[in-house]
């Protein structure tokens, strides 16, 4: 269950990172509120997952999901570069997340 909670914490991290772009420096009220809510939710879920997951693993997976998801959404939503080398680097993040999951204790 902790891994599922951590996964959703990572998705919320993607949400707030992308939300920062839409909030435009916290000048747009609705995107700002949604971004702040996603920030709080992400950290709360991360904290809940830490009840049974190791800190280093959980934090690395959380930030990895956030990094990977944000980079992919930036390509899709904002037309950022989809250069093959960039995509390779994103795939290395995915490989790291999978590796951490495989070598970590089940929770």
TrEMBL record:
What's its membrane topology? Multi-pass membrane protein
Bilayer-crossing residues are 33-50, 57-79, 85-103
Q: What does the UniProt keyword field contain?
A: Cell membrane, Membrane, Transmembrane, Transmembrane helix, Transport
Listed Gene3D superfamilies? 1.10.3730.20
Recorded GO CC terms: plasma membrane
- What is one GO biological process annotated to this record? xenobiotic detoxification by transmembrane export across the plasma membrane
Q: Which GO terms describe its molecular function?
A: transmembrane transporter activity
Q: Which Pfam families match?
A: Multi_Drug_Res
Location relative to the cell: Cell membrane
Q: Which SUPFAM superfamilies match?
A: Multidrug resistance efflux transporter EmrE (SSF103481)
Q: Which NCBIfam families match?
A: PRK11431.1 (NF008512)
State the family it belongs to: Belongs to the drug/metabolite transporter (DMT) superfamily. Small multidrug resistance (SMR) (TC 2.A.7.1) family. Gdx/SugE subfamily.
Q: Can you name this protein?
A: Guanidinium exporter
């Amino acid at each position: 269950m902790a891994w599922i909670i951590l996964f959703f914490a990572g998705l919320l991290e993607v949400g707030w990172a992308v939300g920062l772009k839409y909030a435009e420096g916290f000048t747009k009220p609705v995107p700002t509120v949604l971004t702040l809510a996603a920030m709080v939710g992400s950290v709360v879920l991360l904290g809940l997952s830490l009840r049974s997951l190791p800190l280093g693993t959980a934090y690395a997976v959380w930030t990895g999901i956030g990094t990977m998801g944000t980079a992919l959404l930036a390509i899709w939503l904002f037309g950022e570069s989809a250069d093959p080398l960039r995509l390779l680097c994103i795939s290395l993040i995915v490989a790291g997340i999978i590796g951490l999951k495989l070598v970590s204790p089940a929770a």
